[in-house]
Amino acid sequence: MPITKWILPEGIEDILPEQAYWLEIKRREVIDTFVKFGYGIVIPPLIEYSDSLLTDSSEDLDLQTFKLIDQDTGKQLGLRADITSQISRIYSTYSDQTELNRYCYFDHVIRTKNNESKKSRIPIQAGAELIGFSNINNDAEVVILMLEVLKKFTAKKIFLDLGHVGIFKKLMDSTKLDNEQKLFIKNMIRKKSSSELKNYLDNLKIDESLKKCIGDFPKMHGPINNILKYSDQLISFDKTIKKDIDYIIKLSNLICKFHKDVEIKYDFCELKGFDYENNVIFSAYIENDSEEVAIGGRYDGIQDDVSGIGFSIDVRYLLKYQSASHHSNNLVFKSGKWVFEDKNE
Question: Considering the entire predicted model, what is its pTM?
């Protein structure tokens, strides 16, 4: 009888025993780290009504969400593409909103498509959310925790990029462009595609000094001096941008106290993640790897004016850093079963 060779959809993968075992060990280590920092683990449902998963402010989250009809009620359901909105619902429903609330998770999300290379459409995410009050110490706590968790997966050098999506949004507000034009500019800046961005701006009817400032945006990354030389240019369009720049510099100093081995740079082109983020954003990279392995940021008003900051780590992508050294007692997987191997023989 012929054996059928099943093919999985693109971006959908199995996790086999060696990786699954490593993943479970890391899951325990990560949850212990979350608990040590005072975060409570939650397991939201994989599926719920789409109106509670999605918000009017996040078009990209809507596009990434699989939707189907509930056979019992006829209402539209969504498979979560992100856990942050679910934690906002949990906070609004169950929590004491006069206090600071800390949540964490380690679970799957499902996405309709994959816009980035090498990434899965069913990521496994480890993440945390701090909800309730907005201040720089809370922001620093979350970034420090993200780096602490990331170090559970790799001993390689970690690089942290700090940005502020609010600066880009304030600049866009000065242009009076439509959403499609703003999205195109955003994508060009993310790609740091200066020439294509300049050609596009040349055809827009906006102030010449504003064109130059937007055209310089792809250069606004690297050491702090690379940022400061454009600060006067940015502040001329919105004076509150000075406060934003000062904020991320101070945030960087707080993070350095706990993670001196992490190299921190600034990147105003760092506009990844979902578009409900509107303030400080950050991402982490591992040495000799061009893909970000963790992203996060501050958000306001996902649901019921909830303000918080959080991050998610792409655990499935980090499977590539699996090390055989995690096997205790020489346990290995062979011929469809776990066996003990005496390495002294």
Answer: 0.86
Could you give the C-alpha distances from 278 to 88, 166, 282, in angstroms and in order?
Answer: 16, 5, 12
Residue with tokens 């290995």: 332
> Letter for the amino acid at 289?
D
The arithmetic mean of pLDDT across residues 300-305, rounded, is 60
pLDDT for the residue 325: 47
Contact 262, 147 (CB under 8 A): yes
Do residues 174 and 167 lie in contact, with contact meaning Cβ atoms separated by under 8 Å? Answer: no
Dist. CA 58–CA 302, nearest whole Å: 9
Q: Alpha helices of 59-157 — where are they, by DSSP H?
A: 59-63, 84-94, 136-150
Distance between terminal CA atoms of the chain?
A: 41
Tracing tokens 């929590």 back to the chain, one arrives at 95
Count of CB atoms situated within 10 Å of the CB of 228: 12
Return the closest-CA partner of residue 131 out of 313, 270, 304.
304
Q: Determine the 3-state secondary structure of 218 from DSSP.
A: helix
- Report all structural domains of the chain as residue ranges with CATH numbers, in order of start: 17-322 (3.30.930.10)
Q: Is 314:325 a contact under the CB 8 Å cutoff?
A: no
Question: Tokens in use for 215?
Answer: 């055209």
Q: 109-130 pLDDT, tens per residue?
A: 999 987 665 678 999 999 999 9
Residue 211's alpha-carbon distances to 170, 177, 240, 255, 280, in angstroms, are: 14, 12, 20, 34, 24
